[in-house]
Amino acid sequence: MMVTILNVVIDGILTGGIYSLIAMGFGLQYGVARVLNISHGEFIMLGAFATWSLYTFFGINPLISLVICGPVLFGIGFLIHRTLFSRLQRMSASTGAYEASSLLATFGILFIIQNAALLIWGPFVRGLGIYSYPVSFAGTTFGFNRLITPLFAIVISVAFYLFISRTRLGKAIRAAAQDRVTAGLMGVKINSVLAVCFGLGALMASLAGSLISITYTISPIMGLEYTAIAFIVVVLGGLGSISGSFIGGFLLGLIGSIVSYFDASLALITYYVIFMLLLMVRPTGILGK
Amino acid sequence: MNMAKIISNRPFYLGLIVLVFILLFTLPVYGSNYGIILLTNIILYIILTLSWAIFSGPTGYISLASATFLGVGMYTMALLGNEFPLVIAVLAGGLISSCLALLTGALTLRLRGMYFIMFTFGLTQLAKYVVLWWEHHINGITGRYVIIIEPAIVYYYILVIFVFTLLAAYYIRRSRLGLALQSIGENEEAAAHTGINVTLVKVITFGISAFFMGAAGAIMATRWIYIDPSISFNILYSFLPVLMAIFGGMGQLYGPILGAAIFAYLEELLITRFPYYYMLFFGIVLVAAVLYLPNGFVGLIEKWRGRSGERQHEHT
User: Fold this and answer.
1) Which residues does B198 contact at the CB level (< 8 Å), separation at least 6?
2) Of A102, A104, A114, which to mutate for an interface test with B (greatest number of B Cβ within 10 Å)?
3) CATH class of the A2-281 domain in this structure
4) Does the structure's ipTM exceed the value 0.90?
5) How many domains does chain B fold into?
């Protein structure tokens, strides 16, 4: 019994940690940069496949790939915001118009990245199969990957939270989220901060992708499924709340693993039922005001 | 001068529309099978976009529930198609979708902006997984076969649904309902204060727009022959109408029609010519459209017309 519970909890933390990472990046992009990024999952997929390629062709350890792929995707995200979204922002008459047109643009990005990935890596389902050897832990055995993935997810999430809440740049980001114009008047370089936010979202997606590639199978069309998860977690934790996304991710992961213990095919249904009930009853999420 | 021009133009446009529909209705007489199937697809996209725009255009509530209504229509056909006449099954598809829309509308239309988008997104995903689970656990199947209907008959059905969608869109725009929708889009509180029953107006329009999607889904299911929840409730069909409507421009009635027609034809062209690159082109076209056609084709046409109008004005 204890072993079963431990298994369920570890599974919950494993998926929950990944959900947190995904949702934090997605939430930052929407909460601050006002881009509802439908292509978020594609950045996760890019991170996962970059990690897979680095390991398969160059023998680079996936955990080292974290620090290689992350910054690269940050750069890509930063550039996309600088070239595309800042332009859209200047063109748009209102926040609503900007949200609509940027949503469309991310849909275009989704198509572009997904097609590029299919051309580069083919339509195959891949897996790393690294670190899957069993280790003993608390009187039972686990695949090693199921232990290190949540550990890394937690470390990254906490580091990200500290970055947002403690550093100077984090402060600028929070200021931009609250009131863009006033933040600008206070000397925050608003365009750079927004681009950094979008880049950070891509960075978090890439890190999540690297961790996913260690534990799960990956394919070029996996993106949208993770974007949907990001939607749910962000609503669960409250739109625009970083700590909400963090807690919401683990909560959803735990709920998922408990439901999966009884009937795995009900997990997704449960997610969406929670999602819709929340929207009806408490759209501001568990931590929202 | 301008006024006279518009009035004199009016019979011309009406004549043009009648001519287009005569051509469309006689297509099976002279058209190829491929032409019929291609046009069926194009008209499906137009119906989806136009009926989406009936509700979302004036109100600004972006619904991602289109795939749900389309899928409900498809499953209605799969369940009823063998036992009932085709007309009944198609109407049932529309009605059941419509009822579902009324129900969800009544529950959720107080949600605004991003929350409404997310809810309708969730609805489509939930519908997919519930049907998947139900078919798997209760019926022990993954997908269903649908009765096969001749392409020409499917074409006529889809064309008739299109005509009704167009009429509905036109008359709603001109009616009190349309005005009410418009004022909700401008400012919902103000609309409520002028005595409009905001919720009722929204729910009814949502229901009407879902009817056409459901009916179109029902008849299109016979073209796909085999359906399963991932095909029927494909979230892409929720996003496409939004894209096509914005691509075309929502300021005028012909915007969504134009957007959907161009989009559908482009898709067909790209898929047949560049099967491995078509999504890439599609994405680039999309980003370019957002950047360079912010008000869609309608914006471009209106701008062009406005400019030529100005020039005329200078000359006179």
Assistant:
1) B184, B188, B191, B192
2) A104
3) mainly alpha
4) no
5) 1
